Amino acid sequence: MSERIYYTDPTCIEFDATVVSSSTSDGRSVVVLDRTAFYPTSGGQPYDTGSLGDAEVTDVIDLDDGTIGHVVSAPIAHGTPVRGRVDWARRFDHMQQHTGQHILSAAFDRLHRARTVGFHLGAVLSTIDIDKVLGTETLAAAESEANRVVWENRPVSIRFATPEEAAAMTFRKEPARMGPLRVIEVEDFDLSACGGTHVARAGQVGVITLRSWEKFRGGMRLEFVCGSRVLREFRVLRDAVAGSLRYLSVAPLDLPSAIESAQGENKELRRTLRDLGERLAVHEASALVSGARQIGPARVVVDALDGWDQAGLKALAAAAASRPGVVAALLSAGEPALVVIARASDVNLDAAAVLEALVKKFGGKGGGKPELAQGGGLAGARADMTAALGQLIESLLRPAP
Ligand SMILES: [Zn+2]
């Protein structure tokens, strides 16, 4: 068994110890000490980091024989005396989140008889799973209650209980094993059997906030942050909101409705733009058709145009081909080229076959129906493409049925 210094003194972050075993596991050096302040991953709380002598501690494991394994960056020989140093910022963050969790879980239990059935302390977010589905106001009530206890700065004490003493205690959650137990008490509020590291007074948790929530396995999963994580989160949100307000010139509370109305306006403008584009296409189509070349029974327009996207080219070609006897084959000016081929219903030409032959020559891809085909990704000089389109249409045109 390793002596666990954090059991009685969670603020001890510097200690002297002796290496009692040194081994290699999965290529990693693992040392066991006679005593340690390093917390191993357990009970939903992640491990501490820090150093042992000159070696970095990169993971800490609760081993089956009751000892604690320290994964270190360099092996340390059996019998070596070492000075251990625990990273306090990480440890204190975990203390804030873990004590915060006890208080939050107790608030849900006392106010709403909602029991905590799961806990995870993550690198950014922590979660508790409760066994009931609660509404927004009910969630807020438990959140307020938890913060009231934090701000009353109640003592948080560590006790060790014999099985007899434990049997006489009322725990928030019945301990999985019978004593001797390590018991964490938030004065007159919560009694839990727990091996984790906790602050000495509730006020050190700072503040507890629910971040988001969702239904989960018949109950709910609640994301929460405490202490310094709330400050970090607040700064992120503050900057995001301030950035948005600069664009929208509204009060923070009006931000959602301002975004909603901006989106509505945007949708309206897009609709107007599309209508105008279609009207412009009809107008431009007349000009195009007036320059059409007569090939056999059809008037054929082949052109490369600037400033039209795929949808615009399609509208333009369709508008041109709405006139009897017209075939319109339009290319974009940009690189690689887009192409749309459309023909009037009285013209006997397979637009898809024209496109297929064109793609074979210039690359790209596309497809369509006999009356309308479109493609993109074609590479080559526009003059070569327009010449090829003219020849293809001429060779594939059939007399009207
Ligand atoms: Zn705990």
Summarize the structure.
It contains nine helices and 21 strands. The N and C termini lie far apart (96 Å). It has helices spanning 5-8, 88-112, 136-151, 163-167, 228-248, 255-290, 310-320, 351-362, 382-396; strands at residues 3-4, 14-25, 28-33, 35-36, 50-52, 55-62, 68-72, 81-86, 116-121, 126-130, 156-161, 181-186, 190-193, 208-216, 219-226, 293-295, 298-305, 326-332, 337-343, 365-368, 372-378.
Report what the structure shows.
The chain is of the alpha+beta class and about 400 residues long. It is about 35% helix and about 30% strand. The chain has nine helices and 21 strands. The strands form five sheets. It has a six-stranded antiparallel beta barrel with strand order 2-3-7-6-5-8. A hairpin with a 3-residue loop joins strand 20 and strand 21. It is elongated. The protein binds zinc ion (ZN). The site of zinc ion has 6 residues, from helix 2.
